[in-house]
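Is this the right way to post structure tokens for a design question? Let me know if I should format differently. Anyway, here goes:
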């Protein structure tokens, strides 16, 4: 039976690039995003199907425990197996801590962090029965080093790193690998929101003096989802062009 990968928040950006790359690697693909609108004027499904694998989209807000449970059940029913989970969905709601409303903090924690608990719990249960699986979490350099104006985002990403290590320890004996990637500054709709000044400041600190491309994240995720990474677990791979060394 062909293997199946589910990638959260995969209508666009890094998630779409990961979905396409895992399809090229031969995985059937379960796409996910928060609403149908994210898939309008968007050819990701066609591009994946053109590669000769199966692809289906599942609408679900990954911050909802209940919706995640239903989605994982639906994916299992549709494809018969879930072999790879990429916890990619994420948002930013930046602002200095002193002026940040409580709801702004809570929303980012729910979407970025609790979603990883929700999805890993339900997909992990499927993988435990299969006695195999690959889980890859999208952390961030903000979770490794902190970033002013991102108390909510950096807290969520730091937690994802701790959750990666915890779940690697809980699931390792069942043949499940859990790793994280920590991207630096990657060109996507998320970073398009930054000002010219913020972008130039970032560029000064990057050894490679350029921003990353979504395919450069997808390539590392592809490795972690492959048999070549069978003895790699609980690790965080920074993909930042040399932001901090
Ligand atoms: P993006 O904003 O382009 O894509 C995120 C996707 O997640 C969107 O399609 C969005 O609709 C979806 N999403 C948001 N909330 C959701 C929810 N509750 N349920 C389901 N889907 C939801 O962002 P990008 O840049 O592609 O980021 C992907 C991941 O990579 C995120 O976790 C982000 O934190 C992380 N990352 C991105 C970096 C960058 O420079 N772009 C740097 C470091 C980490």
């Amino acid at each position: 039976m062909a293997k199946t990968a589910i990638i959260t928040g995969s209508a666009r950006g890094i998630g779409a690039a990961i979905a396409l790359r895992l399809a090229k690697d031969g995985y059937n693909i379960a796409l996910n995003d928060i609403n149908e609108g994210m898939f309008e004027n968007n050819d990701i499904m066609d591009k994946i199907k053109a590669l000769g694998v199966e692809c289906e989209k599942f609408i679900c807000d990954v911050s909802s425990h209940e919706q995640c449970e239903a989605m994982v059940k639906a994916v299992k029913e549709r494809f018969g197996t879930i072999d790879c989970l990429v916890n990619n969905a994420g948002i930013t709601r930046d602002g200095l801590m002193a002026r940040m409303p409580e709801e702004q903090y809570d929303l980012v924690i729910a979407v970025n962090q609790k979603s990883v608990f929700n999805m890993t719990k339900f997909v992990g249960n499927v993988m435990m029965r299969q006695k195999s699986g690959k889980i890859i979490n999208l952390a961030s350099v903000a979770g490794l080093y902190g970033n002013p104006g991102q108390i909510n985002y950096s807290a969520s990403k730091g937690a994802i790193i701790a959750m990666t290590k915890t779940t690697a320890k809980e699931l390792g004996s069942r043949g499940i690998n859990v790793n994280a990637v920590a991207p630096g500054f990657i060109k996507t709709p998320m970073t398009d929101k930054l000002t010219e000044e913020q972008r130039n400041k970032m560029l000064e600190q990057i050894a490679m003096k350029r921003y990353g491309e979504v395919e450069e994240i997808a390539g590392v995720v592809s490795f972690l989802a492959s048999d070549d990474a069978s003895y790699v677990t609980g690790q965080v791979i920074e993909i930042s062009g040399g932001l901090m060394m």
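Format looks fine. Someone answered above. Worth noting: Residues 4-185+212-239 form a domain with the Rossmann fold fold (CATH 3.40.50.720). The chain is about 45% helix and 15% strand.
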